[in-house]
Design brief:
Layout (H helix, E strand, L loop, with lengths): L6 E7 L6 H12 L5 E6 L2 E2 L10 H12 L5 E3 L9 E2 L1 H8 L5 E5 L2 H4 L8 H4 L5 H7 L15 H9 L5 H4 L1 H10 L4
């Protein structure tokens, strides 16, 4: 049973750190769809990544809060960071499936290419347009997004070299990174 008339978009990721590419994709999805709210969901312990260089969930959530503050339709969800053990998108979607009228799962094209390798892609409801549409019954909408040349890996390298990342992450997130001595 649906508990809300809201249509949400889920923007998941490690956000290590969050950058303007993440918020840019979310803005485009909001502007080009019927989404009421976009939930930024930092992953807890991603099963598919080497977790050693990932800063704490608290730091990643705090950076997300700072980055999305200017957008009243974006909010932080800690559903994955609150869950113990490895986090899987399929489990998250199963947990919230009945809570919303419609759920859009927002990902970049780079993730779309490998979605069939994720844990239970049939629950994620997306895929390489025709391949997964046929195999899992997914409905896939593409949005127009300008080139967003941001990379969390590159940002971490810049911080480690003492370079400014304000143009990549915004002033408040950069100040947070500096004050907490993250990525050095």
């Amino acid at each position: 049973m649906i508990n809300s008339d809201k249509i949400i978009g889920i923007m998941g990721g490690t956000f290590n750190p969050i950058h303007k590419g993440h918020t840019g994709i979310a803005r485009c999805a909001y502007e080009q769809s019927d989404i009421d709210e976009i939930l930024f969901m930092p992953s807890g312990t991603p099963a598919y990544k080497d977790n050693s260089p990932i800063v704490s969930a608290t730091d990643r959530c705090n950076m997300v809060k700072l980055a999305i503050k200017p957008f009243d339709y974006m909010s932080l969800s800690t559903i994955e960071t609150d869950r113990p053990g490895n986090t899987y998108t399929a489990d998250t979607l199963a947990q919230i499936y009945d809570s919303y009228k419609k759920i859009y799962f927002i990902i970049g094209a780079d993730s779309l290419l490998y979605i069939q390798d994720w844990y239970h892609p049939e629950y994620i409801l997306i895929d390489q347009k025709h391949f997964l549409a046929d195999k899992y019954g997914a409905v896939i909408d593409f949005i127009d997004v300008p080139e967003l040349p941001y990379s969390s890996t590159d940002i971490r390298k810049k911080v480690a070299m003492g370079l400014s990342v304000k143009e990549d992450v915004g002033e408040e997130v950069e100040e947070y990174i500096k004050s907490r001595k993250l990525y050095v």
